[in-house]
Amino acid sequence: MTRPRILGLTGxxxxxxxxxxxxxxxxxxxxxxxxxxxxRMQGPGGKLLPAIEARFPGSTGPxxxxxDVLGEQVFGDPEALADLEAIVHPAVGQNRAxxxxxxxxxxxxxxxxxxxxxxxxxxxxxxxIVVSAPPEAQRKRVLARPGMTxxxxxxxxxxxxxxxxxxxRADHVIDTGTTLAETELAVKSVIEQLRQAD
Length: 198
Fold this sequence. Notes:
Elements: E1 5-10, H1 17-26, E2 31-33, H2 34-41, H3 49-55, E3 60-61, E4 64-65, H4 67-74, H5 78-102, E5 108-112, E6 127-132, H6 135-143, H7 150-159, H8 163-169, E7 172-175, H9 180-197
Parallel strand pairs: 1-5, 1-6, 2-5, 6-7
Antiparallel strand pairs: 3-4
């Protein structure tokens, strides 16, 4: 049985990944958003809440995971983080497998995975697409986010594979430091190239 070509979309914080993922959707490519999936499972009535509450008491409520409370329990504690990932990652994996089954007849699907290289997910995709923008554009976007500080931004960057390395390891790079129209043309071009390659 043939399966869809699996595209892995990644990029450092503030590079415009969500915008580019939305463009793939507009061009008929089904997208699995790992972050959105986690938010849903950790939201009100989410299926991960009982396991998270059992391991991290007081970290959930009627509105779902209390991000600040859970963050305090996990931040700087590798063992606690590993426990949280052991709850979250298998559930995301199951949902991703279900998504693949649901779209088995598509010619390609896109997995939007922020930490594609950091967590070794690049080995499970056929084509890696990296979104990238100049550092000053990235910094401006990230620092405009509510609650973001230069210190937080610096810490996030430390945890991520550097942009230059991501670009070097990518099959395709989409520049988001340009206009939206130019970025969309780049997305369209990548889709066309991949369709011709099949």
